[in-house]
Design brief:
about 400 residues, 16-stranded antiparallel barrel, 22 strands, about 10% helix, mainly beta, 4 helices, two-stranded antiparallel sheet, globular, single chain, Porin
Length: about 400
């Protein structure tokens, strides 16, 4: 059964970028024995000019960073220019006459080839690594920036999972993730050094997700939920003495919609809420997922959050103009109330907001040129605010 995400992404999104993310548009095809093989991918150049200070992500020029916006604004660092081709992608899908379908895909983000997808499908069952079931491209506003708007629906990442799809409903058990992003707050409310974060874990039980995705005439929609166990196991460190261990359930939900208002105009919107599952609140925290909870004495307590995005796409000539704004907020007030003498919470990102406008031009099949302006704004729990401005260019050639 085709991937539900891919099916509705094609239906609701005008962006070549989204099509490439959702599936193998414009693939090269041939048949070998009982199998049909699709080879797909693209070569892509990204270039960015940071207007006032360097807000480029460590992953490359294709992403603006909320964390760097704060760091470099404080350091009074000037902006600059950068370019790379690391978003370039290569994938293959094999479809057998038996109904078995296999996909393997990777890209070069970060400089080295990394695995994006590796999964198989048969009669509604999917197993392997692909987009989280707690994710959708419905409500997505096309962007040149690889990571797009804060507050998009769901995880916006790929995870190991087993998923079953029947009609418009899909359920999955997934890797408890994002792996490598455990709790960042110790039981005293202090930031935990990276060297000590392995003492936190979330791997006792899998994450459970469910999503329903469909359309009514010109309106497409998606609703989903996720439940996870958050396990905190803080051994003795230089920050605290004695052991603290506890666990809790965390959850999140989203709704997303796209409306084809006219032949040229598409309207998009998403909304998310989280209670103890902020790693599933897109672009919260420093950049991608705030802490899910904190220790209050020996008890693990959840941190809540919410966010969303709105946007519009309008076809003009051989391309489209896209504009949108997204924002996410985490509630650190309870942490601050529980630890009134602790000052480290003041440096946490309370609200991340970004806005963008772009034009994506498609002068020929299988190619796209894009220009974009993006504004990033961060408000810390302390009340301090920081912002940055970026201009981007992309050239993508697909096959």
């Amino acid at each position: 059964m085709p991937d539900v995400i891919g099916r509705y992404a094609v239906r609701t999104t005008v962006s070549v970028v989204a099509l490439a993310a959702a599936g193998n548009a414009a693939a090269l095809e041939w048949e070998v024995g009982d199998a049909k093989i699709d080879l797909y991918g693209f070569a892509r150049l990204n270039a960015a000019f940071d207007v006032d200070q360097d807000a480029t992500s460590d992953f490359g020029t294709q992403t603006g960073s909320f964390n760097k916006t704060v760091e470099n604004d404080r350091a009074n660092r000037d902006g600059g220019f950068g370019a790379d081709a690391e978003q370039s992608r290569l994938g293959v899908t094999v479809k057998h006459d038996t109904g078995v379908r296999v996909t393997v895909e990777g890209d070069y983000r970060g400089g080295d080839f990394r695995l994006r997808k590796a999964y198989g499908e048969y009669e509604g069952i999917l197993a392997g690594q692909t987009w989280s079931n707690y994710n959708t491209f419905v409500g997505y506003t096309p962007s040149v920036d690889f990571d797009a708007l804060a507050g998009l629906a769901g995880l916006q990442d790929r995870v190991a999972q087993v998923r079953y799809t029947i009609g418009s409903l899909s359920v999955a058990i997934e890797e408890p993730i994002p792996s490598g992003r455990p709790l960042e707050i110790d039981r005293g409310g202090n930031d935990v050094p990276a060297s000590d974060r392995d003492d936190f874990s979330r791997d006792e039980l899998p994450t459970l997700t469910a999503r329903y995705e469909s359309s009514i005439d010109a309106f497409s929609y998606s609703v989903a939920g996720v439940v996870q166990q958050v396990n905190g196991n803080q051994a003795e460190t230089n920050l605290i003495s004695g052991d603290a261990e506890d666990d809790m359930l965390g959850g999140a939900a989203f709704v997303a919609g796209s409306y084809q208002a006219t032949e040229a105009l598409t309207l998009n919107a998403t909304f998310n809420v989280s209670e103890g599952a902020n790693t599933y609140l897109y672009r919260s925290g420093d950049d991608f997922g705030a802490a899910d909870g904190y220790f209050d004495g020996d008890d693990l307590e959840p941190i809540s959050g919410y966010g969303g995005s709105i946007g519009a796409s309008y076809k003009i000539g051989q391309g489209s103009v896209n504009l949108g704004i997204g924002s996410v907020t985490n509630d650190w007030d309870e942490v601050e109330d529980d630890r009134p003498t602790d000052t480290s919470v003041q440096s946490e990102h309370e609200t991340n907001t970004n806005a963008l406008v772009n034009y994506m031009w498609r002068p020929a099949d299988n190619m796209m040129y894009g220009v974009e302006y993006q504004y990033l704004d961060v408000e810390l729990q302390s009340g301090e605010s920081f912002d940055a401005n970026r201009a981007m260019f992309a050239a993508q050639y697909s096959f």
